[in-house]
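Researcher: Next sequence.
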Amino acid sequence: MNSSSKTNQLGFTLIEILLYLTLSSIMVALIGGIGVNVLSGLTNAKAEEDLQYNAQFVIEKVRTYILAADSIGFPEVGAASSSLHLVMSDSSKNPTKIFEQNGMVFVQEGENAPAQFSGDNIVVSGMEFFNMTKADEAGTLRILVPMSIYNPDGKHSLRASSTLKTTLNLKYP
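Model: Next structure:
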């Protein structure tokens, strides 16, 4: 038997180690990329959920005020406006105004200070009320609320946007 030939080698060659490190690096990069995509998807889903919650909240608040009103003061029949003026039975609340200012939705009852009821990281742009009431019929009001949600980090990168549209049948003309 020749003692200079080695048939039983122990350990790894340099090529085997480099191949292992390359494959390991590729696997870590793939798993990391998948993890980042999953977290990004969760963040976007949360943003969309927050946006829908805020949109529904704004519409419900507007609906509550409209149903408590005696009539619509503005916009007039057949007209559209970015603000809504309601005539209430309590004269101290006249007029009750619902309007958008600086990307937020406010309500002002009479001479009271306006109260915000849209979220702080929610931006409303181009809210519209369209009075579709027909002569001698109960009123109909169409409401459009375009909303966007931004990152709270101050960089203002858009995370989600939506336009909520609804039509309310009123108990008054």
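Model: Residues 14-169 form one domain. The chain has one domain: 14-169.
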